[in-house]
Amino acid sequence: MKKYERLAQDIETMIAAGTLRAGDRLPSVRESVASRGVSPSTVFEAYYLLESRGAVEARPRAGYFVAQRITPRGQEPLLTQPTSGLREVAVNDLVLGVLGSVRQRDVIPLGSAFPNPALFPLDRLARGMGAAMRKLQAQEVLENLSPGNQELRRQIALRYVSTGTLASAEEIVVTSGAMEALNLCLQAVTRPGDVVAIEAPAFYGCLQALERLQLKAVEVATHPRHGVQVEALAAVLQQHDVKACWFMPTFQNPMGASMAQEQKKAMVELLTRQRVPLIEDDVYSELYFGMRRPLPAKSFDREGWVLHCSSFSKSLAPGYRIGWAAAGRFAAQVERLKLSSTLSVAVPSQVAVLHFLQHGAFDKHLRGLRGTLAAQQQKAVRLVAKHLPSGTRVTQPEGGYFLWLELPEDVDALQLHRLALSQNISLAPGHIFSADQRFRHHVRLNYGHPSPEQLEPALRTIGRLAARIRSADR
Amino acid sequence: MKKYERLAQDIETMIAAGTLRAGDRLPSVRESVASRGVSPSTVFEAYYLLESRGAVEARPRAGYFVAQRITPRGQEPLLTQPTSGLREVAVNDLVLGVLGSVRQRDVIPLGSAFPNPALFPLDRLARGMGAAMRKLQAQEVLENLSPGNQELRRQIALRYVSTGTLASAEEIVVTSGAMEALNLCLQAVTRPGDVVAIEAPAFYGCLQALERLQLKAVEVATHPRHGVQVEALAAVLQQHDVKACWFMPTFQNPMGASMAQEQKKAMVELLTRQRVPLIEDDVYSELYFGMRRPLPAKSFDREGWVLHCSSFSKSLAPGYRIGWAAAGRFAAQVERLKLSSTLSVAVPSQVAVLHFLQHGAFDKHLRGLRGTLAAQQQKAVRLVAKHLPSGTRVTQPEGGYFLWLELPEDVDALQLHRLALSQNISLAPGHIFSADQRFRHHVRLNYGHPSPEQLEPALRTIGRLAARIRSADR
Fold it and tell me: For residue B175, how many other CB atoms are within 10 A of its CB?
């Protein structure tokens, strides 16, 4: 741990213990330099880190103060109660209907699944790609086909090393985004009619994949902050012949929940004992606001039962469609499915991402991106508290770019979505996040997309529309 | 038709009618200018066109002469007799084993499915892509996601217009190569257990797709020059509950067969009457050696039963993975499957191909490519006749880059493939082109790949190995 990280952590500990309270002034830089024996820049970096995570706030000419936690824990959404029993999945119509509206240019895309592309080094990627492609020998075009560019696979494997995860370059299949990786993994470990355990609420892409492959879903209770409940999972495994799990243990979509390390470990041990593959959808973990990257469940996998899927779409290169699967003992099957379905990933995209990883200061870009998203989250949470009806509960994830809102029960989210769309604002209604469409007064809100100036008027409008729905209801 | 095309056609007619015979000298340029009232360059262009198609040959300081047809029709492979009845498909192991060897750099890739990437304007594509990507606004990255860049879809639709085919930009879904298009189309019109009619022999990618989706195959008799026999198809439709056909009516892989226009029309009418979708794999039709592009079966489709799939992988941009489906009445289903499986195609690749279509003189590139491939075919056919055992039959397709060889019955193609590989030459053995692996003394030979200097020694070696197999056999 670096010095500034240690300092930041110490201050966080004091906040957590109540030693420092909301509104308290932090020691000045001069004081900290004296008391800790560190350089001024170390103190600045520590305070900046704390600010980016919303723990403190700067007041001009006054210094740094402990921030008001916007959401006392009591106001976060409740633990979900899963629907018991198996479900056929048929959400595709609804999902596509809702998402079709998101891409129009004049719509403020609070319902989008994508972060704002302006947050990414697109110009630098394009320049690097052009240069690298012109250097490529013709023969190399074929050598970049499935399972993917050898050096890119090695670079991806290197990023696993820092999390203590066993994943060799040979295990990695480059795919068309994480979406293809997840779909190939799911197909590799199931047959039509099989049962798959999912979160509640779950990412709609997971529901769509189950529907396409004619699989049945069984839900596992999922905490809005702590994610999948391992005990609940154990009970589900006893009750049903589960052939696979599809979970997002880190910054879950839509809630932002993250399982604690020990819970991830316990989950992997449970699944390994029962020989149930875990498809780990891990596309947001680079967007953490805390001290370090949360470990993937894969890092606790010693026998290859975790199929880890991720991509660069949310961290570096949206639209380049570079994802991958590190599919453990199922790697060969995944590679074969890839060959016989889409054959290979576009060579220019592979070359562009590789070039950036080698020359582009990926980690520096990520630090900036995390800071921006953390600051936007603070702002969004504040605006939700200000403009949405009282009684609205909201998660406050430690990474990613989604908030999950639980509105008062009489606000139908689908109706809210339609009204908002008529005002050129999109929302992702809770309905699309479960097979039985039961998250009816819930909304996923993307704070990584709109420009800061758009956010307040948009949330004000949504608050007004929600109030209108409530009064019409009475 | 341009003047030089008219002149070339007239000469071809004279050759076909026997007025001009092999070895006859064509009129000199001066004579033709006088007799036809055209410019010298028109005559040169006509002779060059005829030469590129192997109809005539230039002899230094002597002029142009009618070429010897290498393969009298009697020496082409025989009409295939389909296996009757339904078949489970399980070829994947064999196919992947065989194809795994093709990509090594020191292997002369006569077994490859890809044309030589050096035949393509890769540098120009890369430069155009780099420039276009840097001009792209961040927001446009998202607008290029499924179903694809709007202007690219329009450009693709424009190319249909010239073949009299009804396909609007709205119908077109951009995919990761033709392979994904074909797979999505197949999934859109079938359920596991359904019966699909295929050619015999068939492209192994078709067999792999059937296997992956757990479909059953029924074969239709296929002529090595004329393709699917419509009467045989009618009989198969009567006998089996066929849910879809997957055919390559133009330059079929592996045989190179092309159905006549009337046969394509009759086939589409038959399938339309019986409401059976046709998945038309049409990736080679731009590589024609004749006067004009063969019409796709889709051009005879008035009710949307043809799902036409193609790509730029074989005509412009290998490794960019830009293909598409124009799926007629099934277009919406295909788009939905795309969204829930791989989401979207890489934006840089889309932008690169679009930029080339708009600025890159695609048709000029194609003319050069066709001429090169036609000349290489002539050479390859000659070398096959020279070096392979007598009794070897060979197709002489009017486009593409494959020859289909029927060796004497006692030459096992899998054994030949293994021996050749030990000499660093790859071959595609006939075994991988049918569910029952019965094309055992057949070989698909890619003449679009090796450098011309490699071709003769490679075929000499293969001839020697084939002879060795025959003598060991006795």
Answer: 31
CB pairs under 8 A between A and B: 193
How confident is the model over B113-135, as pLDDT tens digits? 988 999 999 999 999 999 999 99
Q: Are B229 and B220 in contact (CB under 8 A)?
A: yes
| Angle formed by the axes of helices B362-387 and B452-473, nearest 10° | 30
Contact residues, chain A, for B209 at CB < 8 Å? 340-341
ipTM computed for the complex: 0.84
Nearest chain B Cα distance for residue A240, angstroms: 24
Check if CATH label 3.40.640.10 holds for domain B120-362: yes
Q: pLDDT-derived band of residue A424, with 50, 70 and 90 as boundaries?
A: very high
Q: Where are the alpha helices (DSSP H) in B105-171?
A: 122-135, 138-143, 150-161
Question: Cα distance from A345 to chain B (closest Cα, Å)?
Answer: 7
How does A226-237 read in b/e, with b if 16+ C-beta sit within 10 Å? ebbbbebbbebb
Distance from the A318 Cα atom to the nearest Cα atom in chain B, whole angstroms: 7
- B103 contacts A122? CB cut-off 8 A: no
> Is it the case that residue B71 has pLDDT exceeding 60?
no
B211–A341 C-beta distance less than 8 A: no
What is the band of A442 on the pLDDT scale with cuts at 50, 70, 90?
Answer: very high
CATH of domain A86-118+364-473: 3.90.1150.10
A390-413 tens-digit pLDDT = 999 999 999 999 999 999 999 999
At B321, the pLDDT band (50, 70, 90 cuts) reads very high
Would the CB atoms of B342 and A176 count as touching at under 8 Å?
Answer: yes
Task: Judge: A321–B346 Cβ closer than 8 Å, yes or no.
Answer: yes
Distance, in Å, from the CA atom of B243 to the CA atom of A399, rounded to the nearest integer, reads 48
Chain B residues lying within 8 Å of A122, measured CB to CB = 133, 136, 138, 141
Find out if CATH 3.90.1210.10 is the number for domain A120-359.
no
Q: How far apart, in whole angstroms, are the C-alpha atoms of residue B88 and residue A271? A: 34
Q: CA of A180 to nearest chain B CA: how many angstroms apart?
A: 5
Interface contact flag, A346 B344, Cβ < 8 Å: no
Mean pLDDT value of segment A423-444: 93
Domain extent listing, chain B: 3-66, 73-78+95-118+364-473, 120-362
Contact A319, B352 (CB under 8 A): no
Categorise residue A383: left if φ over 0, alpha if ψ from -120 to 50, beta otherwise: alpha
Judged on CB neighbours under 10 Å (0-12, 13-18, 19+), B394 is: buried
Among the partner-chain residues B180, B320, B345, the one whose CB lies closest to the CB of A341 is B180
Work out the widest C-alpha separation in chain A, in whole angstroms: 70
> Of B96, B141, B313, which to mutate for an interface test with A (greatest number of A Cβ within 10 Å)?
B141
Q: Domain B3-66 maps to which CATH number in 1.10.10.10, 2.60.40.10, 3.30.1130.10, 3.40.720.10?
A: 1.10.10.10
What is the nearest CA distance from B249 to chain A, expressed in angstroms? 21
Q: How distant is the Cα of B36 from the closest Cα of chain A, in angstroms?
A: 44
What is the CATH number assigned to the segment(s) B73-78+95-118+364-473? 3.90.1150.10
Mean pLDDT over each residue of chain B, to the nearest integer: 90
Asked if B142 lies within 8 A of A92 by C-beta distance, the reply is no
pLDDT tens, residue by residue, A35-90: 888 899 899 888 888 887 778 888 877 888 888 765 555 488 888 778 777 888 77
Tokens of A323: 């994802």
Which residues does chain B have within 8 Å of residue A340's beta carbon, measured at their own beta carbons?
92, 183, 205, 208-209, 211-212
Spatial neighbors of B343 by CB under 8 A, at least 6 apart, are: A176, A177, A179, A180, A321, B145, B146
Q: Which residues of B touch A343 (CB under 8 A)?
A: 176-177, 179-180, 321
